[in-house]
Amino acid sequence: MVRDYSTVLQEMIVTPEVALEELEPGMSIFIGTGAAEPRTMVRALLASAAPNIQDLELIQIISFGDAVNSKNFSADRFRLKTFFSGWVADDAISKGHVDYIPSRYSEIPNLFASDHIDVHVAMIQVSPPNDSGYCSLGTAVDVARQAIDKATVVIGEINENVPRTFGDTFVPISDFDCFVLSDDPPFTFDRWPVDKVFDVVAQKVASVIEDGSCISYSIGPLFEALPRHLRGKKNLGIHSPFVTDALMDLINSGAVTNRNKKIYQGKSLTSYALGSKELLKWLDGNPMVEFQAINRVFSPMQIGKNPSVVTIVHARKVDLKGRFALHTGKGNVATGPSEVIDFFNGAEISRGGCTIFALSSRNLEGKPNVTCSVDNYPNQFSLHESVDLVITEYGVASLKGRTVRERAQALIEIAHPDDRAALVAAARESHILYPDQIFLEDSAHSYPSEIHRTRTFKGGKVIHFRPIRPSDEEGMRKLFYRFSDTAVYYRYFTPVTAMPHARMQEYVNIDYTDTMAIVGVTGRADKERLVAEGRFVKGRKEGYAEVAFVVDEAFQNMGIATGMLDMLTDIAKKRGLKGFTADVLSSNRQMLAVFKKLGESCKVTMSDGVYEIAVTF
């Protein structure tokens, strides 16, 4: 016999005031989280003057709205405890109106299960039940099921506006003691405006995300800008605390298939929805988005089962040691230390995982976001020593495996050009950089970031070419010491046995005008290996430049030198040069062959055992 759940439901529906009669002084009340806050019940609770509404403890994982409004609180009636320190909760916490519970999100369910957190009453927003008598938790699963299991009184707030989402979201009406009806609109978030700076930051973030990566998503201008730069990727996966309008766009672009994931394969995994009415409509009945509890979504071990996890964090500040301060208040919707750390650890565990901190070089007030120290900023991130990449609109700084000095050099290069001189001076004074560290102020503004090229050579070897940077000093030094004595002699025309800092820093600090140099690197941005370098220097002959290049001996005979010569030629032509000159030792047959590929434009003469080469464009 098919049960008529509509009749059962009607018998369970009460007014909010009647539902509140189940409360007793001293009870702990779990309130649905974030966009799933049961607004009708919360409003009734805060407005009630009933004698049983005294000394109540309210518990919420993420607080966005009515429950965190300190105007409604009095010490003898309510006290809110939250695990979230961002958005409007930040102000209430700092004023002492709300208690903050620091915790890794993956551990929160254990706090409930182990009775560290008491729950006597659960107030949960749900969708209307389906024909089988199951309601959906809608836009937030987090620990709702644990709260329902633990509570002695479970009050469901049925709202027609709640989407029926899939995953661990369905709860039978038999799990509830009563229901109230609501037509309150759920919390929604307008889409973030994207300015030109964050669009460039997003483009650079997307440039280091490879096909098949599994990414986590958040909310804000960076994440709003990302989809249009990621839509050309293939087989991306989603394991994310939040699903947003921007993430919806990315999924709809076809770039997301989730086929490379090892858990919840084929589905985008999340625990919360934050966004517009359009997002909620898209989620309604969408089986390709899987909502699960936070002990599944935030678990580093679960995250790490997926290969190539990329955790992206929008930071507020970074200092020269690679330490970070995260956003606070309304600048922090979802990126406090507690929210970030689990996904950060998951990326560390993941095979091929990567952690990215991204920010604009300056804030909206025009003040530097790359600073000497973040000691005076709140919301600091504690695992700075394990960060892989830092990205601004001026480039990508790899921190992995680098010394503090090398980190500082790389971070200065992605600071705003007008801030770099002061950062270098402060770093010298603090003994972070060498006292004799060279800094060419004009070069900070003239770095030709538009010059870059990726090519595949013999054997499928992929090389990325870009202009040389001061932070390439260590990479160039390692390249030098990999050369044989013969290779060194071919390049410098004299035996050179050492390349100390004083000499190498002069080599990598160039003006990009009279001297132009490019390097070839292999590997991901966080694992770059410098394998080739080519340059031209304007010579004594007007309109001509002297050209030279070197290639790691393990990468020779692949066409890399020819590729660099082609690239340097293109650059020189655009700068109005007439041609190149070069000196090649007569025994250096390989280099001579590179130039002879230019055909009739290359003239070769011999003088004292040296080929004098002149190339006319």
Q: Which consecutive residue ranges, at least 5 long each, have pLDDT under 50? A: none
- Assign the CATH superfamily of the largest domain: 4-hydroxybutyrate coenzyme  like domains
CATH class of the largest domain: Alpha Beta
Helix/strand/pairing category: alpha/beta
* First-last Cα distance: 89 Å
CATH-scheme architecture of the largest domain: 2-Layer Sandwich
Described by its quaternary structure, the protein is single chain
Instruction: Examine the coordinates and then state which fold CATH places here, giving the name of the CATH topology of the largest domain.
Output: Transcription Regulator spoIIAA
Proportion in helices: 25-40%
| Beta-strand content | 15-25%
Mind explaining what this structure looks like?
This protein is of the alpha/beta class and 617 residues long. α15 (404-413) runs antiparallel to α16. Belongs to the acetyl-CoA hydrolase/transferase family.
Quick synopsis:
With 617 residues, the protein is an alpha/beta fold. It has 22 helices and 31 strands. The strands form six sheets. Strands 11, 12, 17, 18, 19, 20, 21, 22 and 23 form a nine-stranded mixed beta sheet that branches. Strands 24-25-26-27-28-29-31-30 form an eight-stranded mixed beta sheet, sandwiched between helices. A seven-stranded parallel beta sheet has the order 4-3-2-1-5-7-10, with helices on both faces.
